[in-house]
Amino acid sequence: MSAAIITASALSLVGLIVSFMLGYLPVTVDGLSHAGLAIFVTLVTLFTHCMAMFYLIGKGRAVRDAISEGELISDAGGRVSALRTPVFKLSSLAIALTMVTGIIGGGVDTGVLPSLLHAMFAVMAILANSAAFWKISMALNESSRIVAEVNRDLGVSQ
């Protein structure tokens, strides 16, 4: 599951960058428009960040339950829980900036807002999503190592 979340996060980041570049082309590329791609990629991006956050919540619970049921003395539950904080902060920021960028994009499309404002938010959203991708990747990889450690302590063969 963590590989799927990391892959979806990477693809959504690439999609945001491609959508940004399409915004500066005067025509659509083979029927692919900036707005059409941006709407799709925004939804995938929001879904991916939410899945990463829920996955880390569930992983922390599973590790704490395994430690309790196995009667282990370990700080693994706390370490998994600590991985959530930076991911939650950056993912929440990335979600907010991505949504605001899309909303402002609608204002640009109707001629109410300047395109420079949309472009500035798009750059901030891409940067926030890049940082969130990095933290998500690191957190999910570390949580996998912690789970392997707990499984080893429980004597579970993999």
SS-based class: mainly alpha
Number of strands: 0
* Cα end-to-end separation: 16 Å
Shape: elongated
Described by strand count, sense and barrel closure, the largest sheet is:
none
Unreliable residue stretches: none
Note the run of SSEs as H and E: HHHH
Helix count from the secondary structure assignment:
4
Q: Which terms would index this structure?
A:
elongated; 158 residues; mainly alpha
Task: Describe, in short, the structure shown.
The protein has 158 residues and is mainly α. The protein is 83% helix and 0% strand.
Present the secondary structure layout.
Layout: H1 2-22, H2 34-69, H3 76-109, H4 115-154
Can you tell me about this structure?
The longest helix is centred in the C-terminal third of the chain and has 40 residues, at 115-154. With 158 residues, the chain is mainly alpha-helical. The protein is elongated, with a radius of gyration of 19 Å. The model has no long low-confidence stretch (mean pLDDT 92). Helix 1 (2-22) packs antiparallel against helix 2, helix 2 (34-69) packs antiparallel against helix 3 (76-109) and helix 3 (76-109) runs antiparallel to helix 4 (115-154). The protein has four helices and no strands. The chain has helices at residues 2-22, 34-69, 76-109, 115-154.
